[in-house]
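Reading a protein record of the kind used here takes only a little practice. These numbers are not coordinates but entries in a learned vocabulary of local backbone shapes. Here is one such record, which you should read through line by line.
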Amino acid sequence: MVRELSQSTDIIYPDSDGQPMADNTKQFRWIVVIKENLELLFANNPDVFVAGDLLWYPVEGNNRLRRAPDAMVVFGRPKGDRGSYKQWEEDNIAPQVVFEILSPGNRFSEMLAKQDFYNRYGVDEYYIYDPDQVDLVGMQRQEGQLTRIEEMQDWVSPRLGIRFQLGEGTLTIFTPTGDPFLGFVELDRRRREAEERANLAEEERQQERQRANLAEEERQRERQRANLAEEERQRERQRANLAEQRADAAEAQLQAMEQRLRELGLDSGDN
């Protein structure tokens, strides 16, 4: 006789469903690009959790009811590592946005099952991209149901603020500031270029500071030369004043001697 499991029985919620993250390099690349760029987009918001290929269990007590979206975004939950997303341990907040990247191995019935799951358990926005066909399908919750978005060209996600643009041969996703989602190689190249620009700007600032210091030193030397010149002018004025004083004293002495001679009747004009 098989005993029925009670709610109190410990149930294991595996962290893996045994399925590969991707079937080919193109699918894997798109999963990584979307997940990592979403991480960057919300890097400064501690209450936005972004994950890729993480098992989501919406109902406690049922470890068979689960899905692993290629990428998902949860608003209102803190960042951090998780083995799986157990919704009842996350204030019962369901992922609001999910992405699925198709591969040739995806079956139509599987995609219908995913759509039904996301619709049933509270996803607000659901995006499906087929990189081989460059085909993007989007769904948005309206009146309690995920409803297909009629036009995806230049569609802006209400939750994420990102914009989708289908071009010749590929999909481009833009951040709210207009920057495109980029792969690791391009992100690293731009990071290195930004570092080089920052280093060059810092070198220029240092050179500018050196030029400013040299100019200040030259101004100080000019002030010192001006001070020395002013001191020399003051000494020259003092010498001139002293010479004038001496001349005045000599003149006064001469006049006194002449007066004395006149008093003695020895005026220098007499024979």
Q: What stands out?
A: Residues 184-263 form the longest helix (80 residues). Residues 183-263 form one domain. The chain has two domains: 25-181, 183-263. Confidence is low (pLDDT under 50) at residues 1-8.
